[in-house]
């Protein structure tokens, strides 16, 4: 460790040494420990420990650990976390001290709605920008579709986060495509975040503790995706007493159990959900369809063990699957599974480490055919294994250093397919592909003075596209944007490099405090992405496959700058955040006309590279205190692509470009039992490609776009109002069972919002031979009516 | 494999999605020449249609181009002149018991309209021989009523890159729904699969059954006549037809629709740079007629 320490001194030499010169005394000591919830023992992420005498403090990290370095003396330390009682402790620090604190939930006041920040003025004082934290309690209060608490839907009410439409899987951050989001569940990546295409996310709200979305200024400890990091942390499980949570809704039933295994030392949580439309509908289906089932489920499990005051182990797992079974004739299923093992270790009061080892798998399976004579079986997957050691060094109150590395081994199975035709069997599957992605990073969060703080770092990433496998070499097509022609193939042995890439990714953020209630912030990040989702449809489908960078596909790289002004008003009752950003993306993947993306060994010949850019203005105004709380989010943005051969090789808006995106979220606490919520969204139409003309061929009428333009016209404006109400059961001392009813109406005024507009002959009718064929435009609305729902949630402890 | 998306789309019907006609304002564009030249080795009278494209919402029949000189030349020098009949229809009636050519012949189409010259060259490729139509009584299907359904039993010859347009007729009426367009690359759906030398895969075999308005296969009744023709295409025309079909059924893919690209036919404006719509293909045709028992 000592040699690493010197390495940091060398890297961060000048600034930290001069600071040390001012404050170093031979009697410096460190106070550190965990900050936890007194009720259930959950560690609190981002809680503050503040030393009043020196006006300096620290926030707890992702594992609830804080550390402050001070000269010896007697100090008053305030521990605080929004929604919790502040605790003040007086400590005599004459040597290094470990002090674990448990904060009690503020029970007397009405619950607050929290969307950002753990301390009241964090919006203004923290160096990070372009980060949104959604409190799970807030998400649970929002009106929901069919009564299901939805994390990703909640995120879409924040500036810079959009979706191509209802039912579409994933989300778009600042003009990035859905595969540019790194979605982490307890540090393991999730490759498809949706159930039932995009209607529900895979996260069980009962098991989630903390959700944080980085849209820009992404710290160097994260890498591998261009546009965002969604860091979802699971609860550790109540280590004080047994707690049961559950709910019954229209779609899912939920149940979670958490309990100590050894009180204050080890605990677990297990949370399960299952949809049950199939169970309810079965008696009503005709006989031939009684074997048809559509259902999805997920199971989340986590356990932790505090081995000693210095060591803590965590084991978490997730298993989720969507299943569609049509009798014996056809089946289709997909799902993620992840497992992660983590070891927290405190080397000293100042040096905290976490080592994660994880496994993550996304796969799908399809089968057709009811006998051995004719049919089709197909499966595909992406599997990865990773080790990630990370260190946090609480150097002194002015410098917080994080460093570490990561290696991921990927195994891509683009498609294993066997077809049977009249008893003949043919295997037309594709071989696996392999890749190794590695990264090393270091970052320092440094306070220069009262006004200026910085977070700067560097990530070095490396990708090795490796055998065993076949590398294909193509020549460019004669037509711009056309299919590339194969010229040669070469086979490689296991672990033999086919192609390597590396990138230096600098990251930087700065905050300048204008006065106690306002600040300006600046950030820059470069991100590199070595794997991508091959998807040519408006909404990504579960059968889209991930493919690595290769000798034909260069890694995507993005540079983003952001500038923001942050202001809090009326004792932090109102928070105002404004940001502008500009993002340039290189080596964005698009597809040739008639691209064949499935089970095609030469798929790389159908991919074309281009560039992308996104820029915008984001405004978030929140009211955080009072009976009425809520926020207004507004985004003015543009995201464009320039791909050879598409749109005459000129810039065009991407399919999910939305010029204006306004959302209002309001929460009203009537009394201790009744609370109401409402959300409203108003979004500019996204662009689609309209034809100009029609022509006849072989008795059919076809659309034609004479200008060859892409995404040339906007679909109509989207707007929707949802309302919700929660009725809590009466609280009595000693009562163990709490229930609450949640009522909501989605799309209250019954608007048929457009997802897309299609052009074609009227319906798919059988046109009379020689008769006229009428062409028309039709609007597709995914949700065609208002959707009321009721759900019941309960808690037992 | 695009047809697999279809199954996803059925699933989204679980939700209350809906489609409404909508008025939209389109960008205007100049009319373009449309060449509809699908010749084959069976018909006595070969037909080529020349029309103009028109604004998308103009629901009148296409206007014919009547003043063209149209000629097809076989690679051995044989010339077929096409003469105008009505409203842009040009025909050539071959001598009895002759065909326009045999497998392996190539053909050049020349069209002159005023001083504008257009041309295209294609090859007559082999078709897949048809073995039989197989009928089967089915009950308790997940989709579709109980009744008699048919399958086309035909094997794609060995060798990559054979492409077909399979046309089915019920009692003499061509099944012309967009979703009934049945094209094959070798024995499978598209070029990547390398499903070569097989009997056509099940979905292709079964797409000769007429579809209902809900696009579910409907049964045949005894006495019905099933006629199936397998027309060969060139690979370029297969890609043309793939886009053609996708454009017509794209809306069925709902939220999984793909961005539309224009059809790319093979006819070019040789003494200028006008775009030409439509295409030129000469097919070898294998066919079968079967009466349901």
User: Number of domains in the coordinates of chain A?
Assistant: 3
Could you say what the CATH architecture of the largest domain in chain A is? Beta Barrel
What name is given to the CATH topology of the largest domain in chain A? Maltoporin, Chain A
Question: Level of helix content of chain B?
Answer: 10-25%
What is the strand content of chain A? over 45%
Beta content of chain B: 35-45%
Radius of gyration of chain A: 27 Å
Overall pLDDT metric of chain B:
88
Characterize the main sheet of chain A: 22 strands, antiparallel, barrel
Largest interface: A-B, 101 and 95 residues
When the domains of chain B are counted, the total is: 2
Put simply, the count of helices of chain A is 6
What's the count of strands of chain A?
A: 51
Low-confidence stretches of chain A: 1-25, 108-117
Low-pLDDT stretches of chain B are 1-15
Intertermini distance of chain A: 44 Å
List keywords for this structure.
heterodimer, A: 797 residues, mainly beta, Ferric Hydroxamate Uptake Protein, Chain A, domain 1, Maltoporin, Chain A, 22-stranded antiparallel beta barrel, 6 helices, disordered N terminus, B: mainly beta, Immunoglobulin-like, five-stranded antiparallel sheet, 10% helix
3D architecture notes:
The complex is a heterodimer of chains A (797) and B (293). With 797 residues, chain A is mostly beta strands. Chain A folds into three domains: 2-103, Immunoglobulin-like (Sandwich), CATH 2.60.40.10; 122-232, Ferric Hydroxamate Uptake Protein, Chain A, domain 1 (Beta Complex); 233-796, Maltoporin, Chain A. Chain A has six helices and 51 strands. In chain A, the strands form eleven sheets. Chain A has a 22-stranded antiparallel β-barrel. Chain A has a five-stranded mixed sheet with strand order 9-16-17-12-13. In chain A, helix 1 (2-11) crosses helix 2 (13-23). Chain A is globular and about 95 Å long. Mean pLDDT of chain A is 86; it is low at 1-25 and 108-117. Chain B is globular. Chain B has two domains: 33-125 and 265-282, Immunoglobulin-like (Sandwich); 127-254 and 285-291, no CATH class. The model of chain B is unreliable at 1-15 (pLDDT under 50). Chain B has helices spanning 3-12, 202-206, 235-249; strands spanning 18-21, 33-40, 45-52, 54-55, 68-74, 79-84, 89-93, 106-113, 116-123, 130-138, 147-154, 163-170, 173-174, 182-185, 225-233, 268-269, 276-283, 285-291. Chain B has 293 residues and is mainly beta. Chain B has three helices and 18 strands. In chain B, the strands form three sheets. Chain B has a nine-stranded mixed sheet, with no helix packed on it. In chain B, strands 12, 13, 14, 15 and 18 form a five-stranded antiparallel sheet that branches. In chain B, 10% of the residues lie in helices and 39% in strands. At the A-B interface, strand 44, strand 45, strand 49 and strand 50 of A face helix 1, strand 1, strand 2, strand 3 and strand 4 of B. Strand 44 (693-697) of chain A pairs antiparallel with strand 4 (54-55) of chain B, so a sheet runs across the interface.
């Amino acid at each position: 460790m000592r040699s690493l320490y010197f390495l940091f001194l060398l890297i961060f030499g000048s600034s930290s040494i001069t600071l040390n010169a001012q404050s170093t005394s031979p009697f410096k000591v460190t106070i550190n420990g965990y900050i936890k919830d007194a009720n259930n023992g959950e560690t609190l992420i981002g809680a503050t420990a503040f030393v009043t005498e020196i006006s300096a403090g620290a926030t707890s990290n992702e594992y609830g650990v804080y550390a402050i370095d001070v000269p010896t003396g007697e100090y008053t330390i305030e521990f605080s976390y929004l929604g919790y009682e502040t605790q003040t402790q007086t400590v005599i620090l004459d040597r290094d001290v470990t002090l674990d604190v448990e904060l009690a939930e503020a029970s007397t006041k009405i619950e607050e709605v929290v969307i950002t920040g753990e301390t009241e003025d964090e919006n203004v004082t923290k160096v990070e920008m372009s980060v949104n934290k959604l409190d799970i309690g807030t998400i649970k209060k929002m009106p929901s579709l069919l009564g299901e608490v939805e994390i990703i839907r909640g995120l879409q009410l924040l500036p810079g986060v959009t979706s191509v439409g209802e039912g579409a899987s994933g989300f778009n951050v600042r003009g990035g495509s859905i595969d540019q989001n790194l979605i982490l569940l307890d540090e393991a990546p999730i490759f498809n975040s949706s159930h039932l295409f995009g209607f529900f996310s895979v996260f069980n709200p009962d098991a989630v503790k903390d959700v944080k979305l980085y849209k820009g200024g992404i710290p160097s400890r994260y890498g591998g995706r261009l546009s965002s990091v969604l860091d979802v942390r699971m609860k550790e499980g109540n280590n004080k007493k047994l707690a049961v949570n559950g709910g019954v809704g229209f779609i899912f039933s939920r149940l979670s159990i958490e309990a100590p295994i050894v009180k204050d030392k080890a605990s677990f949580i297990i949370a399960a959900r299952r949809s049950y439309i199939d169970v309810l509908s079965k008696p009503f289906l005709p006989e031939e369809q009684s074997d048809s089932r559509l259902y999805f489920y997920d199971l989340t499990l986590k356990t932790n063990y505090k081995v000693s005051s210095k060591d803590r182990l965590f084991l978490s797992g997730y298993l989720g699957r969507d299943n569609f079974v049509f009798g014996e004739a056809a089946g289709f299923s997909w799902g993620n599974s992840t497992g992660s093992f983590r070891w927290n270790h405190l080397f000293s009061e100042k040096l905290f480490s976490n080592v994660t080892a994880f496994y993550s798998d996304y796969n799908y399976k399809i089968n057709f055919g009811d006998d051995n004579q004719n049919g089709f079986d197909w499966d595909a997957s992406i599997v990865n294994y990773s080790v990630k050691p990370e260190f946090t060094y609480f150097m002194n109150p002015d410098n917080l250093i994080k460093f570490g590395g990561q290696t991921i081994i990927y195994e891509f199975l683009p498609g294993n397919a066997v077809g049977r035709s009249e008893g003949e069997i043919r295997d037309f599957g594709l071989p696996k592909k392999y890749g190794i992605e590695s990264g090393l990073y270091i970052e320092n969060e440094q306070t220069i003075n009262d006004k200026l703080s910085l977070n700067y770092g560097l990530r070095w990433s490396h990708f090795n596209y490796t055998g065993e496998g076949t590398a294909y070499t193509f020549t460019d097509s004669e037509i711009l944007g056309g299919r590339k022609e194969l010229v040669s193939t070469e086979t490689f042995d296991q672990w033999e490099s086919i192609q390597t890439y590396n990138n230096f990714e600098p990251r930087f953020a700065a905050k300048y405090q204008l006065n106690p209630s306002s600040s300006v912030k600046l950030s820059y990040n470069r991100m590199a992405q070595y794997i991508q989702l091959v998807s040519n449809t408006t909404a990504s489908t579960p059968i889209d496959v991930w493919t690595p960078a290769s000798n034909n596909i260069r890694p995507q790289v993005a540079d983003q700058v952001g500038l923001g002004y942050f202001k809090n008003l009326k004792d932090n009752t109102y928070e105002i955040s404004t940001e502008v950003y500009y993002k340039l993306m290189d080596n964005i993947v698009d597809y040739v006309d008639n691209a064949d993306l499935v089970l095609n060994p030469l798929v790389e010949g159908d991919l074309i590279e281009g560039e992308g850019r996104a820029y915008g203005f984001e405004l978030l105004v929140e009211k955080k205190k009072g009976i009425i709380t809520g926020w207004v989010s507004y985004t003015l943005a543009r995201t464009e692509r320039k791909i050879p051969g598409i749109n005459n090789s000129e810039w065009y808006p991407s399919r999910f470009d939305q010029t204006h995106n306004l959302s209002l979220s309001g929460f009203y606490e009537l009394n201790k039992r009744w609370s109401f919520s409402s959300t409203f969204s108003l979004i500019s139409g996204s662009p689609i490609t309209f034809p100009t003309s029609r022509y006849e061929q072989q008795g059919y009428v076809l659309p034609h776009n004479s200008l060859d333009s892409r995404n040339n016209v906007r679909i109509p404006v989207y707007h929707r109002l949802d309302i919700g109400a929660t009725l809590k059961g009466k609280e009595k001392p000693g009562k163990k069972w709490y229930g609450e009813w949640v009522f909501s109406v989605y799309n209250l005024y019954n608007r048929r919002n457009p997802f897309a507009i299609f052009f074609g002959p009227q319906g798919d009718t059988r046109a009379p031979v020689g008769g006229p064929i009428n062409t028309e435009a039709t609007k597709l609305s995914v949700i065609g009516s208002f959707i009321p729902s009721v759900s019941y949630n309960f808690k037992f402890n | 494999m695009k047809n697999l998306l279809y199954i996803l789309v059925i699933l989204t019907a679980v939700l209350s999605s809906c489609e409404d006609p909508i008025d939209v304002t389109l960008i205007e564009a100049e009319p373009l020449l449309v060449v509809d030249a699908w010749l084959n080795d069976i018909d006595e009278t070969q037909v080529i249609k020349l029309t103009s494209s028109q604004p998308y919402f103009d629901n009148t029949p296409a206007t014919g181009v009547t003043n063209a000189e149209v000629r097809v030349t076989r690679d051995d020098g044989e010339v077929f002149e096409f003469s105008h009949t009505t409203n842009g229809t040009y025909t050539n009636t071959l001598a009895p018991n002759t065909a326009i050519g045999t497998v392996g012949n190539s053909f050049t189409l020349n069209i002159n309209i005023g001083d504008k010259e257009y041309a295209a060259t294609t090859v007559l490729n082999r078709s897949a021989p048809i073995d039989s139509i197989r009928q089967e009584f089915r009950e308790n299907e997940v989709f579709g009523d109980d009744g008699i359904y048919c399958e086309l039993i035909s094997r794609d010859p060995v060798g990559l890159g054979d492409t077909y347009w399979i046309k089915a007729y019920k009692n003499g009426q061509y099944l012309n729904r967009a979703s009934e367009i049945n094209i094959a690359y070798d024995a499978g759906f598209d070029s990547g699969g390398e499903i070569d030398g097989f009997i056509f895969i099940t979905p292709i075999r079964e797409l000769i059954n007429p579809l209902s308005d809900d696009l579910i296969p409907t049964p045949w009744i005894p006495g019905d006549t099933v006629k199936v023709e397998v027309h060969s295409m060139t690979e370029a025309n297969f890609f043309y037809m793939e886009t053609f079909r996708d454009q017509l059924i794209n809306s069925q893919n709902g939220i999984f629709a793909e961005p539309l690209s224009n059809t790319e036919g093979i006819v070019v404006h040789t003494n200028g740079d006008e775009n030409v719509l439509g295409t030129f293909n000469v097919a070898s045709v294998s066919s079968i007629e079967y009466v349901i028992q």
